[in-house]
Amino acid sequence: MEANKPRDFIRQAIDADLAAGANQGRVVTRFPPEPNGYLHIGHAKSVCLNFTVAADFDGHCFLRFDDTNPDKEDSRFVDAIKEDVHWLGFDWGDRLTHASDYFESLFESAVTLIEAGKAYVDSLTAEEIRTHRGTLTEPGKNSPYRNRSVEENLDLFRRMAAGEFEDGAHVLRAKIDMASPNMNLRDPALYRIRKSRHQRTQDRWCIYPMYDFAHTLSDALEGTTHSLCTLEFEDHRPLYEWFLDQLPMANRPRQIEFSRLNLAFTVTSKRLLKRLIDEGHVQGWDDPRMPTLAALRRRGYTPESIVDFCARVGVTKKDTTIELGALENCLREDLNERAERRVAVLDPIKVVIENFPDGETEWLPAANHPNRPELGERDLPFSRELWIERDDFMEDPPRKFFRLKPGGEVRLRYAYIIKCEEVVKDAAGKISYLRCSMDVDTRSGSGPAAMRKVKGTIHWLSAAHAKPAEVHLYDRLFKVPNPAAGDDLAADLNPDSLVVRSNAFVEAALADLTPGVPVQFERLGYFVTDPDVTAGLRFNRAVTLRDTWAKLERQLLQSET
Question: What is the CATH number of the domain that holds 549?
Fold first, then answer.
């Protein structure tokens, strides 16, 4: 690890372990997602932390799927998670594992606990177990089945594994302390019956280990030295250590907790994300308004911006809520440097240049990037009929409106100064087009006359050359900083989270833009082509050029605290 690199508390703890000679100098971490949904922005922090910590100490990081609940897991989630981790720039090499790889070992460990009198088969119903568990202020009560003999427990557990009983008939529980102030130590379940087909082991098993049991032993079995997890598992650490105490292994991992990534105006609970899909508020896990990595990728986020954001957030022990604008600003900074500039008109109104020859085209040079001359130039076609943005013209403007207005002048970027001579309307009084004239001596960069000043500059496209496109303007899915605080998702949704511009026009060259390659639509924001569209052109807005929510976001966050 670099000598001058800042040490967060996790790296400091690993420094101390290595100094004490722990783990023979090894550092092994793991990223252990459950394959029951897509990874989201919160997972990105854990991915970055586990892989970079391992790299900093010349260690290894496993990608392990904690696949212990066949009712909710699917191989498509496995594939999506692997794609996301690779997209962020990390590689697990030959260290891809699954909790299901260890099912035989986990079963034998459960038998060991039964034989040691540390586990028993409980025949209470799920509701009865909840009742016996007690509360935070009242101790739990022992199950009437807690004192079954070792022989009876072994017989029942093996019959559970053989499929003799129906779901819910029995569970295997650890025998710890029903009066413990830590609810996780009140005889937690180790195995339950689930006659469900597993996406990897198929019908081999009809009992499945509970998460805490499988997670702990999987860490130990595959050689993890430091089990990094979020703060909600802090109360689970005594159980983690209890398993390791009862089942001594050659490797004993150390659990260290850090704060999870909480973003304002965002939900990252898989339960709530699934609700958004099931209730039809979004169109799937990769809907560009979702906080999943697949959705952010489709929207136009770069892996570099997300990794940078996670680094800036840092690793702490204190749960905080980060402004969503902080993530958006990381993307703006990244795209400002890399994205080439192009022109698009999203809500077009036609301009006819009366003193430009009909049928002729003039090609005007335009820089691909204002600060990167090595990216060169392209030529924009200029013709008699142009498209401009509808909101760049006002028939009755306020005093400080510096764009186009009747009798007013404005510069067309890369081109000429034009003046609005007449507003032409149809029979219903709707504007059909604007008749304008251009000052032929004011072409950008063509001489002293081009330096004539006007207060406004707008973008445009040649109507004869532009390509039609559909543009999706994505914004925040929620309108409040802490959505679903009352579990009413629909009430917190932002009605303007998606605005579709179906009659937009773009530069002709954009028809060949590679999906996922970001560009800046000048004056409008950063966009990518949607990879899921098979016909026509569709662009997704990744982020606006400015953080229009910043002031409101701070006010709302302050009001909640």
Answer: 2.40.240.10
